[in-house]
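Worked problem 6 (solution included).
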Amino acid sequence: MQNKPSEERLAKGAYNWLRISPLLTIITLYIVASFGIGDEICYSNLSLCGEYDYYSPIAGYINVGLGVLVSACWHLILLQYVNNKDSEFVRKHGKQALTYAGIRTAVAFFGVLIDYLLNGDGSLACFIIMILFLLWLALPNLGMEKIKKELEANPNISRENAQVQPNISAEVLSNEVIDLTKEKAEEKEISMENKQSHQEILDSILANLKSTNDADRKQAIEQLREINFSSPAIRSLLEKMSLQDSNNIVRKEALKALSLPSNQAVQKHLIANQLDRGIRFTILNEIKKWVSDGLLNEENAEVIQSRYDFDF
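Solution. The predicted structure is:
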């Protein structure tokens, strides 16, 4: 079964549609205008279009105006993002993209109307086309920039290239436990028999962390304090619980559990070979600046910091 598209991908999809939609809207405008509906209207009601020698330009304005309105219907495709049931983030950017589409349509339509009122006979066309071209370039990029800033400020938004934490095998788990034991010399040596039971313990803790019962989740976190090993799946779930759990006490305890030596060892195993200490120190300083500048709230900052401060 395929995974659902990430929130980032869906939100960007709305702005990408704005980039390609002119291919369809321009063709549609041309086709609708070529139907000559304005000519039919003026032929059937000359009083609506003025004198006979004047109705032809008015018919042209009607043709183009109808073409603009009909071609704008392509933007209704953006409603799939506006009405997304799973993500407020996607809905927000779907509405923003639809607003941008409305701005472009309004510029085109009122450009035709103003040209008619000023008797420009199409003289404003080049100016309107230039404005539409600039809007086509600027608005999707503006939307993409907003997405980028929100992704930096909110780690809970699912990313396009986010890597899902794999279910850890008993062999990988044993290696991590050995690493932790070496780092913590005061910990007593773990026997092979105990290693074989670690997976069962972690499976039980993970199941309780996913429980809808507050007491089960609290007990699972307390059990983590009594052991000296953990797993990527558990640490990842603790991050989400520290921000999203419905129980305030559980959220606080989950955040504290991220600082346990066992969970720090898991994070070190995952990231130490990818980012050296100097880079992580720079990231931690940047996080502090984001908080002080109001770009990131304290709760999210603490969770993000726990990914990089395991050896500071």
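Discussion: The radius of gyration is 30 Å.
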